[in-house]
Design a protein that fits this description.
Helix content is about 30%, strand content about 25%. It is built from eleven helices and 17 strands. The strands form two sheets. Strands 1, 10, 11, 12, 13, 14, 15, 16 and 17 form a nine-stranded mixed sheet that branches. Strand 7 (about 180-185), helix 8 (about 200-220) and strand 8 (about 230) form a beta-alpha-beta unit. The longest helix has 24 residues, at about 200-220.
Protein backbone atom coordinates (compact mmCIF):
# COMPACT_ATOMS: atom_id res chain seq x y z
CA UNK A 1 0.00 0.00 0.00
CA UNK A 2 1.11 3.55 -0.68
CA UNK A 3 1.13 6.11 2.12
CA UNK A 4 -1.41 8.94 1.88
CA UNK A 5 1.39 11.41 1.14
CA UNK A 6 2.62 9.30 -1.76
CA UNK A 7 -0.87 9.00 -3.22
CA UNK A 8 -1.48 12.71 -2.69
CA UNK A 9 1.68 13.57 -4.63
CA UNK A 10 0.70 11.32 -7.52
CA UNK A 11 3.09 8.47 -6.86
CA UNK A 12 1.54 5.34 -8.32
CA UNK A 13 2.15 1.69 -7.57
CA UNK A 14 4.06 0.37 -10.56
CA UNK A 15 5.85 -2.59 -9.06
CA UNK A 16 6.05 -3.98 -12.57
CA UNK A 17 8.48 -1.27 -13.70
CA UNK A 18 10.25 0.02 -10.58
CA UNK A 19 13.74 -1.42 -10.72
CA UNK A 20 13.67 -1.96 -14.48
CA UNK A 21 16.17 -0.39 -16.79
CA UNK A 22 14.70 2.31 -18.98
CA UNK A 23 15.23 0.24 -22.12
CA UNK A 24 12.68 -2.25 -20.80
CA UNK A 25 9.85 0.30 -20.61
CA UNK A 26 6.96 0.30 -23.03
CA UNK A 27 6.94 3.35 -25.29
CA UNK A 28 6.44 6.20 -25.73
CA UNK A 29 7.54 6.98 -22.17
CA UNK A 30 8.33 10.32 -20.52
CA UNK A 31 11.54 10.04 -18.51
CA UNK A 32 13.19 12.35 -16.01
CA UNK A 33 16.74 11.80 -14.82
CA UNK A 34 16.35 12.41 -11.09
CA UNK A 35 20.01 13.19 -10.45
CA UNK A 36 20.07 15.77 -13.25
CA UNK A 37 16.82 17.34 -12.07
CA UNK A 38 18.12 17.54 -8.52
CA UNK A 39 21.32 19.23 -9.72
CA UNK A 40 19.30 21.73 -11.75
CA UNK A 41 17.06 22.43 -8.75
CA UNK A 42 20.14 23.00 -6.60
CA UNK A 43 21.65 25.27 -9.23
CA UNK A 44 18.59 27.54 -9.40
CA UNK A 45 18.32 27.62 -5.61
CA UNK A 46 22.01 28.45 -5.30
CA UNK A 47 21.62 31.40 -7.66
CA UNK A 48 18.63 32.66 -5.68
CA UNK A 49 20.51 32.41 -2.40
CA UNK A 50 23.53 34.21 -3.84
CA UNK A 51 21.27 36.98 -5.15
CA UNK A 52 19.28 37.20 -1.92
CA UNK A 53 15.89 36.48 -3.51
CA UNK A 54 13.24 33.83 -2.98
CA UNK A 55 12.41 31.09 -5.44
CA UNK A 56 8.78 30.42 -6.31
CA UNK A 57 9.07 27.89 -9.17
CA UNK A 58 6.46 27.80 -11.89
CA UNK A 59 4.71 24.43 -12.13
CA UNK A 60 2.94 24.91 -15.48
CA UNK A 61 5.58 22.77 -17.19
CA UNK A 62 6.07 20.28 -14.33
CA UNK A 63 2.53 19.46 -13.16
CA UNK A 64 3.75 16.93 -10.58
CA UNK A 65 3.27 17.84 -6.89
CA UNK A 66 6.07 15.51 -5.79
CA UNK A 67 8.51 17.58 -7.86
CA UNK A 68 7.19 20.77 -6.29
CA UNK A 69 7.81 19.22 -2.86
CA UNK A 70 11.40 18.50 -3.93
CA UNK A 71 11.82 22.17 -4.87
CA UNK A 72 10.38 23.34 -1.56
CA UNK A 73 12.63 20.92 0.31
CA UNK A 74 15.55 22.52 -1.52
CA UNK A 75 14.51 25.99 -0.35
CA UNK A 76 11.67 27.27 -2.56
CA UNK A 77 9.06 29.30 -0.64
CA UNK A 78 6.07 27.97 -2.58
CA UNK A 79 4.98 27.59 -6.19
CA UNK A 80 3.64 29.57 -9.11
CA UNK A 81 0.74 28.18 -11.14
CA UNK A 82 -0.66 29.31 -14.47
CA UNK A 83 -4.21 28.17 -13.85
CA UNK A 84 -6.60 27.77 -10.95
CA UNK A 85 -6.88 24.05 -11.70
CA UNK A 86 -3.13 23.62 -11.30
CA UNK A 87 -3.27 25.47 -8.00
CA UNK A 88 -6.04 23.15 -6.79
CA UNK A 89 -3.83 20.14 -7.58
CA UNK A 90 -0.88 21.63 -5.69
CA UNK A 91 -3.02 22.57 -2.70
CA UNK A 92 -4.52 19.07 -2.56
CA UNK A 93 -0.94 17.80 -2.27
CA UNK A 94 -0.30 19.95 0.79
CA UNK A 95 1.44 22.93 -0.82
CA UNK A 96 0.27 26.10 0.91
CA UNK A 97 1.95 29.17 -0.60
CA UNK A 98 0.66 29.45 -4.16
CA UNK A 99 0.81 32.33 -6.64
CA UNK A 100 -1.65 32.05 -9.51
CA UNK A 101 0.14 34.24 -12.04
CA UNK A 102 -3.05 34.90 -13.93
CA UNK A 103 -6.33 36.75 -13.73
CA UNK A 104 -9.28 34.80 -12.26
CA UNK A 105 -12.48 35.81 -14.05
CA UNK A 106 -16.04 34.46 -13.87
CA UNK A 107 -18.41 33.35 -11.13
CA UNK A 108 -17.49 29.66 -11.35
CA UNK A 109 -13.77 30.28 -11.00
CA UNK A 110 -14.27 32.83 -8.21
CA UNK A 111 -16.27 30.27 -6.24
CA UNK A 112 -13.51 27.69 -6.70
CA UNK A 113 -10.91 30.25 -5.70
CA UNK A 114 -12.74 30.99 -2.46
CA UNK A 115 -12.86 27.26 -1.67
CA UNK A 116 -9.15 27.03 -2.39
CA UNK A 117 -8.40 29.67 0.26
CA UNK A 118 -9.62 27.17 2.87
CA UNK A 119 -6.62 24.92 2.24
CA UNK A 120 -3.93 27.22 0.82
CA UNK A 121 -2.62 30.77 1.17
CA UNK A 122 -3.28 31.89 -2.38
CA UNK A 123 -2.10 34.96 -4.26
CA UNK A 124 -3.84 36.01 -7.48
CA UNK A 125 -2.95 38.57 -10.13
CA UNK A 126 -5.06 41.48 -11.33
CA UNK A 127 -4.63 44.12 -14.04
CA UNK A 128 -8.05 45.76 -13.95
CA UNK A 129 -10.42 47.40 -11.47
CA UNK A 130 -13.14 45.07 -12.82
CA UNK A 131 -11.18 42.07 -11.53
CA UNK A 132 -10.45 43.81 -8.23
CA UNK A 133 -14.11 44.51 -7.56
CA UNK A 134 -15.17 40.95 -8.41
CA UNK A 135 -12.47 39.44 -6.21
CA UNK A 136 -13.33 41.74 -3.33
CA UNK A 137 -17.03 40.89 -3.53
CA UNK A 138 -16.30 37.16 -3.59
CA UNK A 139 -13.84 37.42 -0.71
CA UNK A 140 -16.28 39.40 1.45
CA UNK A 141 -19.06 36.92 0.75
CA UNK A 142 -16.76 34.01 1.69
CA UNK A 143 -15.42 35.81 4.75
CA UNK A 144 -11.78 35.46 3.69
CA UNK A 145 -8.89 37.79 2.99
CA UNK A 146 -7.18 37.16 -0.32
CA UNK A 147 -3.65 38.19 -1.23
CA UNK A 148 -3.39 40.03 -4.55
CA UNK A 149 -0.52 41.13 -6.78
CA UNK A 150 -0.88 43.71 -9.50
CA UNK A 151 0.48 42.47 -12.81
CA UNK A 152 2.55 45.09 -14.61
CA UNK A 153 3.26 45.06 -18.34
CA UNK A 154 7.02 45.44 -18.51
CA UNK A 155 7.39 44.96 -22.25
CA UNK A 156 5.90 41.63 -23.18
CA UNK A 157 2.61 43.30 -24.14
CA UNK A 158 0.38 40.48 -23.01
CA UNK A 159 -1.53 41.03 -19.76
CA UNK A 160 -0.62 43.69 -17.23
CA UNK A 161 -1.36 47.30 -16.39
CA UNK A 162 1.12 49.97 -17.53
CA UNK A 163 4.03 50.61 -15.17
CA UNK A 164 4.17 53.79 -13.14
CA UNK A 165 1.09 55.73 -12.08
CA UNK A 166 -1.42 53.34 -13.67
CA UNK A 167 -0.05 50.43 -11.64
CA UNK A 168 0.09 52.57 -8.50
CA UNK A 169 -3.57 53.54 -8.96
CA UNK A 170 -4.63 49.91 -9.37
CA UNK A 171 -2.55 48.92 -6.34
CA UNK A 172 -4.30 51.61 -4.35
CA UNK A 173 -7.64 50.18 -5.44
CA UNK A 174 -6.65 46.72 -4.22
CA UNK A 175 -5.38 48.11 -0.93
CA UNK A 176 -8.66 49.92 -0.26
CA UNK A 177 -10.89 46.86 -0.74
CA UNK A 178 -12.05 44.90 2.32
CA UNK A 179 -11.40 41.23 1.69
CA UNK A 180 -8.24 41.87 -0.31
CA UNK A 181 -4.66 42.41 0.82
CA UNK A 182 -2.15 43.99 -1.51
CA UNK A 183 0.87 41.68 -1.52
CA UNK A 184 2.91 43.39 -4.24
CA UNK A 185 3.60 43.39 -7.94
CA UNK A 186 4.54 40.88 -10.61
CA UNK A 187 5.71 41.06 -14.20
CA UNK A 188 7.27 38.89 -16.88
CA UNK A 189 10.13 39.98 -19.10
CA UNK A 190 9.36 37.17 -21.53
CA UNK A 191 10.05 39.30 -24.61
CA UNK A 192 13.76 39.26 -23.73
CA UNK A 193 14.35 35.52 -23.50
CA UNK A 194 15.38 34.90 -27.11
CA UNK A 195 17.86 37.77 -27.45
CA UNK A 196 21.06 36.10 -28.64
CA UNK A 197 23.71 38.65 -27.69
CA UNK A 198 24.43 38.26 -23.95
CA UNK A 199 25.04 41.95 -23.28
CA UNK A 200 22.03 43.06 -25.28
CA UNK A 201 19.92 40.54 -23.38
CA UNK A 202 21.26 41.73 -20.06
CA UNK A 203 20.43 45.34 -20.87
CA UNK A 204 16.94 44.41 -22.07
CA UNK A 205 16.20 42.38 -18.92
CA UNK A 206 17.55 45.12 -16.69
CA UNK A 207 15.42 47.75 -18.44
CA UNK A 208 12.25 45.68 -18.19
CA UNK A 209 12.74 44.65 -14.59
CA UNK A 210 13.52 48.23 -13.63
CA UNK A 211 10.05 49.22 -14.84
CA UNK A 212 8.67 46.79 -12.28
CA UNK A 213 10.97 47.68 -9.39
CA UNK A 214 10.60 51.43 -9.98
CA UNK A 215 6.83 50.98 -9.90
CA UNK A 216 7.14 49.06 -6.65
CA UNK A 217 9.10 51.94 -5.20
CA UNK A 218 6.44 54.43 -6.32
CA UNK A 219 3.86 52.31 -4.52
CA UNK A 220 5.91 52.33 -1.34
CA UNK A 221 6.40 56.08 -1.55
CA UNK A 222 2.63 56.35 -1.74
CA UNK A 223 2.25 54.39 1.48
CA UNK A 224 1.26 51.11 -0.16
CA UNK A 225 2.59 47.79 1.21
CA UNK A 226 4.70 45.98 -1.38
CA UNK A 227 6.28 42.82 -0.01
CA UNK A 228 6.48 40.84 -3.24
CA UNK A 229 8.13 41.87 -6.49
CA UNK A 230 7.93 38.72 -8.59
CA UNK A 231 9.32 38.09 -12.07
CA UNK A 232 12.03 36.07 -13.81
CA UNK A 233 11.63 32.89 -15.82
CA UNK A 234 14.08 30.16 -16.76
CA UNK A 235 15.35 32.15 -19.73
CA UNK A 236 16.17 35.22 -17.62
CA UNK A 237 16.50 34.26 -13.96
CA UNK A 238 20.30 34.40 -13.90
CA UNK A 239 20.03 38.11 -14.69
CA UNK A 240 16.72 38.95 -13.04
CA UNK A 241 17.61 37.49 -9.67
CA UNK A 242 20.41 40.05 -9.23
CA UNK A 243 18.31 43.13 -10.02
CA UNK A 244 17.81 45.41 -7.06
CA UNK A 245 14.26 45.38 -5.78
CA UNK A 246 13.29 41.91 -7.00
CA UNK A 247 12.13 39.68 -4.15
CA UNK A 248 11.46 36.40 -5.97
CA UNK A 249 11.87 34.61 -9.30
CA UNK A 250 9.49 32.13 -10.91
CA UNK A 251 11.88 30.05 -13.06
CA UNK A 252 10.48 26.53 -13.36
CA UNK A 253 11.37 24.81 -16.63
CA UNK A 254 15.09 24.97 -15.89
CA UNK A 255 14.81 21.97 -13.60
CA UNK A 256 14.36 19.87 -16.75
CA UNK A 257 15.95 22.02 -19.44
CA UNK A 258 15.23 21.17 -23.07
CA UNK A 259 16.21 22.04 -26.64
CA UNK A 260 14.14 25.24 -26.60
CA UNK A 261 15.71 26.56 -23.41
CA UNK A 262 19.24 25.75 -24.51
CA UNK A 263 19.05 26.68 -28.21
CA UNK A 264 16.69 29.65 -28.11
CA UNK A 265 17.28 31.04 -24.62
CA UNK A 266 20.96 30.31 -24.03
CA UNK A 267 20.39 28.19 -20.91
CA UNK A 268 23.28 25.86 -20.10
CA UNK A 269 21.48 23.56 -17.66
CA UNK A 270 21.81 19.81 -18.10
CA UNK A 271 19.13 18.01 -20.08
CA UNK A 272 16.96 16.03 -17.69
CA UNK A 273 13.73 15.30 -19.55
CA UNK A 274 13.48 12.85 -22.43
CA UNK A 275 10.98 10.73 -24.31
CA UNK A 276 11.82 7.08 -24.94
CA UNK A 277 10.58 5.66 -28.25
CA UNK A 278 10.82 2.38 -30.14
CA UNK A 279 12.06 1.99 -33.71
CA UNK A 280 9.07 0.50 -35.54
CA UNK A 281 10.30 0.76 -39.15
CA UNK A 282 13.56 1.03 -41.12
CA UNK A 283 12.39 1.92 -44.67
CA UNK A 284 15.97 2.68 -45.75
CA UNK A 285 19.53 2.64 -44.37
CA UNK A 286 19.22 6.39 -43.72
CA UNK A 287 15.70 6.52 -42.32
CA UNK A 288 14.18 5.21 -39.13
CA UNK A 289 10.64 5.59 -37.84
CA UNK A 290 9.83 5.73 -34.12
CA UNK A 291 6.52 5.41 -32.29
CA UNK A 292 6.59 8.85 -30.65
CA UNK A 293 5.14 11.72 -32.65
CA UNK A 294 3.43 15.00 -31.82
CA UNK A 295 1.11 13.24 -29.38
CA UNK A 296 4.13 12.24 -27.29
CA UNK A 297 6.51 15.17 -27.71
CA UNK A 298 5.86 18.66 -29.01
CA UNK A 299 7.75 20.49 -31.72
CA UNK A 300 6.06 23.89 -31.38
CA UNK A 301 9.06 25.69 -29.90
CA UNK A 302 11.91 23.35 -30.86
CA UNK A 303 12.34 19.94 -32.46
CA UNK A 304 13.24 17.05 -30.15
CA UNK A 305 16.78 15.74 -30.56
CA UNK A 306 17.56 12.00 -30.66
CA UNK A 307 20.42 10.89 -28.44
CA UNK A 308 23.28 8.67 -29.58
CA UNK A 309 22.46 8.38 -33.29
CA UNK A 310 25.50 10.23 -34.54
CA UNK A 311 24.99 12.22 -37.73
CA UNK A 312 21.31 13.19 -37.88
CA UNK A 313 20.25 15.18 -40.94
CA UNK A 314 16.64 15.85 -39.94
CA UNK A 315 13.84 14.96 -37.53
CA UNK A 316 10.20 15.26 -38.54
CA UNK A 317 7.18 14.63 -36.34
CA UNK A 318 3.73 13.56 -37.48
CA UNK A 319 0.83 12.68 -35.18
CA UNK A 320 2.11 9.26 -34.08
CA UNK A 321 5.60 8.98 -35.60
CA UNK A 322 9.04 10.51 -35.50
CA UNK A 323 10.94 10.22 -38.77
CA UNK A 324 14.69 10.47 -38.33
CA UNK A 325 16.87 10.98 -41.40
CA UNK A 326 20.48 9.96 -40.86
CA UNK A 327 23.32 11.79 -42.54
CA UNK A 328 24.89 8.52 -43.69
CA UNK A 329 23.64 4.93 -44.09
CA UNK A 330 23.63 2.96 -40.86
CA UNK A 331 21.90 -0.35 -40.07
CA UNK A 332 21.71 0.59 -36.38
CA UNK A 333 19.35 1.08 -34.65
CA UNK A 334 17.27 -1.86 -35.76
CA UNK A 335 13.53 -2.42 -35.56
CA UNK A 336 12.65 -2.94 -31.90
CA UNK A 337 15.57 -0.90 -30.58
CA UNK A 338 14.88 2.07 -28.31
CA UNK A 339 15.76 5.69 -29.11
CA UNK A 340 15.71 8.47 -26.54
CA UNK A 341 14.83 12.06 -27.52
CA UNK A 342 15.65 15.21 -25.58
CA UNK A 343 12.31 17.01 -25.54
CA UNK A 344 11.90 20.11 -27.66
CA UNK A 345 9.95 22.06 -25.05
CA UNK A 346 9.05 20.62 -21.66
CA UNK A 347 6.00 22.83 -21.06
CA UNK A 348 4.18 21.43 -24.08
CA UNK A 349 5.49 17.87 -23.74
CA UNK A 350 4.77 16.97 -20.10
CA UNK A 351 1.09 17.77 -20.58
CA UNK A 352 0.82 15.05 -23.24
CA UNK A 353 1.59 12.23 -20.81
CA UNK A 354 -0.27 10.56 -17.97
CA UNK A 355 2.82 9.46 -16.08
CA UNK A 356 6.47 10.36 -15.67
CA UNK A 357 9.17 7.77 -14.97
CA UNK A 358 11.85 8.96 -12.57
CA UNK A 359 15.20 7.29 -13.29
CA UNK A 360 18.41 7.08 -11.34
CA UNK A 361 21.39 5.57 -13.10
CA UNK A 362 19.12 4.48 -15.94
CA UNK A 363 16.87 2.48 -13.58
CA UNK A 364 13.27 3.33 -12.72
CA UNK A 365 13.09 4.60 -9.14
CA UNK A 366 9.62 6.12 -9.10
CA UNK A 367 6.57 6.64 -11.29
CA UNK A 368 4.52 9.82 -10.90
CA UNK A 369 1.08 10.55 -12.22
CA UNK A 370 1.05 13.94 -13.93
CA UNK A 371 -1.77 15.25 -11.79
CA UNK A 372 -1.77 18.70 -13.35
CA UNK A 373 -2.35 17.31 -16.81
CA UNK A 374 -5.46 18.76 -18.45
CA UNK A 375 -5.94 21.42 -15.74
CA UNK A 376 -6.59 24.26 -18.18
CA UNK A 377 -9.43 25.95 -16.30
Amino acid sequence: MLSSDRVRDGMIARIDVVGQRKEELDTPALLVDLAVMERNIARIMRTCREAGVNWRPHTKGQKVPAIAHKEIAAGAIGVTCAKLGEAEVMAAAGIKDILIANQIVGAQKLARLMRLTLTADVIVAVDSVVQVEALAAAARLAGVQLRVVVEVNIGMNRAGVDPGEAAVALSRSVNSCPGLRLAGLMGWEGHTVKIRDPEEKRRAVQHSVRLLTDTAELCRQGGLPVEIVSCGGTGTYRITAYQRGVTEVQAGGGIFSDVHYRTNMGLDHEYGLTVLATVVSRPSPTRLICDAGKKAMSCDAATPEPIGLGDVAAVRLSAEHATVELGAPNPIPEIGDKVEFVVGYSDTTVMLHEEMFGLRGGVVEVVWQILGRGKIR
